[in-house]
Amino acid sequence: MLIAPARGNLHKIVVLNPKGGCGKTTLATNIAASYAMRGPAPTLVDLDPQGFSTRWLHRRPSDRPQIFGRSAYQLKMQGRSAVHLETHPETETLVIDLPAALSPDELQDVTYDAGSILIPVMPSVIDVDCASHFIADLLLVAQIDRRNQQLAVVANRTRQNTRSYRMLLRFLASLQIPLIAVLRDSQCFVHAAARGIGICEMPSYIAGKDIEQFRPVIDWLAGCRVRRLQATMPPTFEHRSSVNPPHLAKH
Ligand SMILES: Nc1ncnc2c1ncn2[C@@H]1O[C@H](COP(=O)(O)OP(=O)(O)OP(=O)(O)O)[C@@H](O)[C@H]1O
Ligand SMILES: [Mg+2]
Predict the structure, then answer these.
(1) What is the Å distance from ligand 2's center to 250 Cα?
(2) Distance 24 CA to ligand 1 centre (A)
(3) Residues with beta carbon inside 6 Å of ligand 1?
């Protein structure tokens, strides 16, 4: 289990899908780059022993906004039931990139205390089939409650109006899981990955369309953060008074 520091303002974002190559690292690194541009510096946690997001971070030019990094080998998680993650006190956002092929048991551990869980899915018959089993595990084994609005899907490398895209939409509607963004297949993601940057750091005349398609991801995450902060805040006077209105109090 990966335990983040118990700080009210810390937002843990988990990107996962046991299907390989669906865009977990792409999504995680682009989220980290977006938060870095807004500040304060986020922490990118790479739990994939292959270390692709760690390598992306190593390629990041030094003049780009800072992102702190933690990687699987640093955390030495193997065989340990709980690992406490140390983060820079400035960090308000943890973005966690996970490896493919997680077992259902591991799902509960990695989603522990997550503020947001994002699942990139490619609209192919095989990917949608894998996602349906995996999301069922997430809801049942990891006991993620859809009503908390912390779980969403991002359709990645999409060609709209294809049969498999419509299949993905039907599947998500049946599970009542929101599809918050639809990202096209674009070389901008490939070029950004090679340079250690996010698409939001590319000129808008090159990556404008992809930046626009990515924006709902950041907007949805902002909503999750607000809901989480509200849930942890002590009740305000209005809340207290609505529970026990002053004009009804006995004298
Ligand atoms: N929207 C996209 N358009 C074009 N290429 C993409 C897009 N998303 C991801 N890719 C490319 O697809 C490949 C796989 O993506 P990525 O590494 O993010 O997947 P992953 O789920 O992290 O894979 P793994 O399961 O191996 O960790 C990479 O080469 C990446 O650059
Ligand atoms: Mg990856």
Answers:
(1) 61
(2) 7
(3) 20-26, 48, 52, 99-100, 156-157, 183, 185-186, 189-190, 193
Rounded percentage of the chain residues whose pLDDT exceeds 90 = 55
Three-class secondary structure of residue 35 per DSSP: helix
Smallest CA separation from ligand 1 atom 3, residue: 185
pTM for this model (two decimals): 0.90
Domain layout of the chain by residue ranges: 8-233
Closest ligand to residue 181's CA: 1
Q: How far does the centroid of ligand 2 lie from the alpha carbon of residue 147, in Å?
A: 28
- The DSSP code for 100 is S
Question: Amino acid identity of 65?
Answer: P
- Decide which of 3.40.50.720, 3.40.50.300, 3.40.250.10, 3.30.70.60 is the CATH code for 8-233: 3.40.50.300
Distance, in Å, from the CA atom of 180 to the CA atom of 201, rounded to the nearest integer, reads 21
Of 232 and 78, the structure prediction assigns the larger pLDDT to 232
pLDDT of residue 147: 77
Question: Residues 44-91: pLDDT tens digits?
Answer: 999 998 999 999 999 999 999 999 999 876 665 555 566 777 788 889
What is the chain's mean pLDDT, rounded? 87
